[in-house]
Design brief:
By secondary structure, the chain is α/β, with parallel strands linked by helices. It has a single domain (about 30-45, about 60-290), classed as Alpha/Beta hydrolase fold, catalytic domain (Rossmann fold), CATH 3.40.50.1820. Helix content is about 45%, strand content about 15%. It has helices spanning about 1-30, 35-45, 100-105, 135-150, 160-170, 185-200, 200-215, 225-230, 250-260, 280-290; strands at about 60-65, 75-80, 85-90, 110-115, 155-160, 175-180, 240-245, 265-270. Strands 1-2-4-3-5-6-7-8 form an eight-stranded mixed β-sheet, with helices on both faces. α3 (about 100-105) links the parallel β3 and β4.
Length: about 300
């Protein structure tokens, strides 16, 4: 009974908070879009309270330290032996979401390392404070794991984690192969997705990129995978898997990333949406096969993008 009352109280407080933020955004849209952008970006980078993480069979767990003034803790877990393959979840996720990938990839002869992004799972808060995060926090967590386990043979990442992995490689991170699951094509599109869901008006939305640039100290173009990849003659081979029914990150994002990334192949799934693909055997087998350099089975090729 007490637990039920607590849950109802939490829901009521969340609804009141959403109503107040909505009213503030509506006022800012009319009167103070720059101040509204500060609130909107703060909302955008606030990590939603997660459901209790569900983990698969335990691996070898380590606590690492990421670069930065506070040396935040990064939790990683590994299985198997061989060249390292890193798994990186998306926004509001955790390493346990990749439990279906560990056996297929380890069975293909790799050491599988699943990483909790800063501010997520068991990792500590990132550079933007407790309960908040942006893509640089994901990259920092990945870099901390690589500093410990060694350069990646492969990276398998989902959603914002996939975008972070791609940006890290574009920044010069050496990697043999990438499997990008439902990647977000660029940060501006990520802002658009949030603005649509949160009801952010056009004047406030127009001010958000400048605020993000001030926080990250990087131009928005730095997070534009499509434009940066299209300017490269050679990048590690990539397999982009995206579901046509994805309502969180539209399928077009996968098309754009695969078309711009030299040597990439796009494969579509149908009916899995944004998160269920992480448990689909045909997706995990395709990822393991691609990392091992063998033809994927079970995921029909879409014919879009460039062939490997």
């Amino acid at each position: 009974m007490a637990e039920t009352l607590t849950q109802k109280s939490t829901i009521v407080r969340a609804n009141i908070g959403n109503q107040l933020r909505g009213a503030a955004l509506a006022f800012a849209e009319r009167e103070a879009p720059r101040l509204g952008a500060r609130l909107a970006v703060r909302m955008w980078m606030t990590i939603p309270p997660p459901a209790p993480p569900v983990y698969g069979p335990a691996g070898e767990r380590v606590v690492l330290r990421a670069e930065g003034k506070r040396k935040p803790s990064v939790v990683a877990e590994s299985w198997g032996a061989g060249p390292p393959v890193y798994l990186l979840h998306g926004w509001a996720g955790h390493r346990g979401q990749f439990s279906a990938f560990t056996d297929p990839i380890a069975g293909a002869g790799f050491r599988v390392i699943a990483v909790d992004g800063l501010g997520h799972g068991e990792s500590g808060p990132g550079r933007y404070g407790r309960g908040r995060g942006l893509m640089p926090d994901f990259i920092s967590a990945l870099e901390a794991a690589i500093a410990h386990y060694g350069p990646p043979h492969g990276l398998v990442a989902h959603s914002l984690g996939a975008s972070a992995a791609a940006v890290a490689v574009l920044n010069g991170l050496p990697a043999g192969r990438l499997v990008l699951l439902a990647p977000i094509a660029n940060a501006l599109s990520g802002i658009d997705i949030f603005a649509r869901i949160a009801g952010v008006g056009p004047r406030v939305r127009a001010q958000m990129p400048r605020r993000v640039e001030r926080l990250t100290r990087l131009p928005m173009a730095h997070f534009d995978i499509v434009t940066r990849a299209a300017e490269c003659d050679e990048l590690p081979p990539a397999l982009v898997i995206h579901d046509t029914a994805d309502r969180t990150v539209p399928f077009d994002h996968g098309v754009l990333v695969a078309s711009a990334w030299p040597g990439a192949r796009l494969e579509r799934t149908e009916g899995l949406g944004h998160r269920r693909m992480l448990m689909a055997p045909r997706v995990t087998e395709a990822a393991a096969g691609f990392l091992a350099g063998v033809a994927a089975s079970g995921v029909p090729a879409s014919g879009l993008g460039r062939s490997a």
